[in-house]
Design a protein that fits this description.
It is built from seven helices and two strands. By secondary structure, it is mostly helical. The model has no long low-confidence stretch (mean pLDDT about 75).
């Protein structure tokens, strides 16, 4: 039975190899894919949406594992159910933000911060948050 499956997937691989490799073909020639072109195709709005998804997911997962609604027979939090529910809610929240056309550059320009300085402010906030976490937890718990 296992040998038959191996033969089937081998033939399937041989027939589909041309379809799979066609994704890297464009007008300039075959194999024009590089890491730099991949990162050039990602704009700052995509990174912001992805970061919001991670933040929403982390907060929802923390909340759902803390409440007593999703527990197993031993009283431990059921992390599988909590992760699926938090993934779905985070995905819907980020999709709603994306479809509404919400722009973070417009948000910060409304309060007087230029769009160019947002990224430097974000790095300062991230570095400050890391130092705050190290200060609160102590260096021995981090390492």
């Amino acid at each position: 039975m296992k040998k038959g499956l191996l033969v089937f997937f081998s033939f399937l691989y041989l027939f589909l190899i041309n379809f799979v490799s066609a994704q890297f073909f464009d007008n300039y020639g075959y194999g024009d894919f590089s890491i730099s072109s991949f990162f050039d195709s990602i704009n700052s709005q995509d990174i912001t949406i992805f970061a919001l998804f991670l933040i929403f997911f982390a907060f929802l997962f923390l909340i759902l594992t803390r409440i007593n609604l999703f527990r197993d027979a031993h009283g431990n939090p059921n992390k599988g159910i909590a992760s699926v529910i938090s993934f779905g809610i985070s995905l819907l929240a980020v999709y709603g933000i994306y479809r509404s056309g919400f722009s973070f550059g417009d948000l910060f320009s409304g309060i007087g911060v230029s769009p160019d300085s947002i990224y430097s402010l974000a790095w300062i906030i991230v570095i400050g948050a890391v130092f705050f976490i190290i200060w609160k937890l102590g260096i021995s718990r981090i390492w």
